[in-house]
Amino acid sequence: MENLTPKEIVSYLDQYVIGQNNAKKTIAVALRNRYRRMQLPAEIQQDVMPKNILMIGSTGIGKTEIARRLSKMMELPFIKIEASKYTEVGFVGRDVESMIRDLASISLKLVRESQNSKNGDKIEAYIENKIIEKLLPPLPQGVSEQKTDEYEASFLRMQKKFENGDLDHLVIKIEMPTNSVDMSNSGLPPQMIDVQESISKVLGGLNKKGKEKEVTVKEAKTILAQEASQELFDEDKLKELALKRVEEGGIIFIDEIDKIAVPSGSQGRQDPSKEGVQRDLLPIVEGSTVQTKLGLVNTDHILFISAGAFHLSKPSDLIPELQGRFPLRVELDSLTEDVLYRILTEPKNSLITQYKALMEVEGVDLEFTEDALRTIAYYSFLANEKTEDIGARRLHTVMEKILEEISFEADEHSGEIIKVDEVLVKDKLDKVVEDEDTTRYIL
Ligand SMILES: Nc1ncnc2c1ncn2[C@@H]1O[C@H](COP(=O)(O)OP(=O)(O)OP(=O)(O)O)[C@@H](O)[C@H]1O
Ligand SMILES: [Mg+2]
What is the spatial distance between Cα 17 and Cα 9, in angstroms, rounded to a whole number? Predict the structure, then answer.
């Protein structure tokens, strides 16, 4: 995953996001540049900084969708956050540094998961032994050889049963893991989180044995998986790996960045905290160190991608220092009728596929004629033009309007084929779209 070429990244995104080629390309290149950087000699490597990206485009045209798909694809620590959720340091709320702490936690989770899947065999063996020992307590020291042989034979028999799942229904007593509460999201200052972690470690050390609980073997398998991974891997080593990953591969997607811009000429009743958040973002985007549960994370090489509709404000309404830290600008295109049609039909799990699947649950076979699909795209485009442009989200409202009744009565039509054709679509929408006012309310 880490060395996908730009073309491969774009073609992955193509499966889900229609058009927006510039944005896809820019992001793909930025990701590839990190891989290129890693191949350089150490002295240049330190000086190659990531080029952060600002995506600009009106609502509903795929900004967040691109990020969402990227995050699914990548095995890099990735987090998507909303700029509007943060407050200036000193105000009540989440400070911007918490995004780095969150990213660090995600990195740790990733590293742990990849360790677990690499060592699946070891973990399974650990779980199997643990459970069989519960059912078949080991013999005391110094018993006769005959006893030991017998024991081993029954152990093997048990193993066989375990592997066949014959033991799944049995009930055994196991210790529940002592979960330390994850406080990193609580909005406490980082120093406090450290203290909290140390305390829970000490407490954990004191009563290492968690509470015993009766569970079935089947449930025990999942519960013991966590214990196995803790017993088998060195926690400090994992943290070290996670720290490296987050510093060298971390990506932060800052959505709705336009919401913290202060439009020029609108002073007075603006929220003073917005500019504060921007100022707090500066050092993080530029590169600074943040205390996290992995230790100090240096943000120099974390890639920041920000996105915003910039309807009410412009990128130039951000404070200049912040503008300068997002040198790559991409504008996303607004959606044409043709693109709307493709969004409706092409992506994996497109809207049409979704509605068909939903109706299938009721035993109804929903079919759309080609004309109907074109007409849906046409009306969606029209509605976007006549009123506000809400991009592909318009397809959702239009589809709901068309399928309103079918959806309501679906259970009565089980086993039938329902065809949605041009006539039906026109019938539902013609009146609505004709009049601008009704369009405003209904679509
Ligand atoms: N280019 C596209 N290809 C495929 N689907 C799209 C595209 N653009 C939008 N969509 C669909 O529309 C929905 C809304 O898009 P998205 O969340 O990306 O909007 P956005 O650009 O982030 O808007 P906002 O500025 O309001 O956050 C998504 O769920 C997605 O299914
Ligand atoms: Mg969005």
Answer: 12
Average pLDDT (385-397) is 91
- For the chain, the average pLDDT equals 86
Helix (H) / strand (E) element for 267: namely none
Q: Which residues contact 168 (CB under 8 A, 6 or more apart)?
A: 216, 217, 218
Task: Look at ligand 1, atom 19, and give the residue with the nearest C-alpha.
Answer: 60
Residue 350 alpha carbon, nearest atom of ligand 1: 31
Ligand located closest to 391 CA: 1
CA 358 to each of CA 280, 348, 351: distance values in angstroms, whole numbers, following the listed order = 45, 15, 11
C-alpha to C-alpha distance for 290 and 299, rounded to whole angstroms: 8
Around ion ligand 2, which residues have CB less than 5 A away? 64
178 has pLDDT over 90 = no
The CB density around residue 159, as the number of other CB atoms within 10 Å, is 15
What is the pLDDT confidence band of residue 217, given thresholds at 50, 70 and 90?
Answer: confident
CA of 53 to the centre of ligand 2 (A): 15
- Rounded to 10 deg, the angle between the 370-386 and 422-434 helix axes is 10
At residue 347, what is the residue type?
P
Domains of the chain: 6-110+243-331 (3.40.50.300), 115-240 (no CATH), 337-433 (1.10.8.60)
309 lines ligand 1 (CB under 6 A): yes
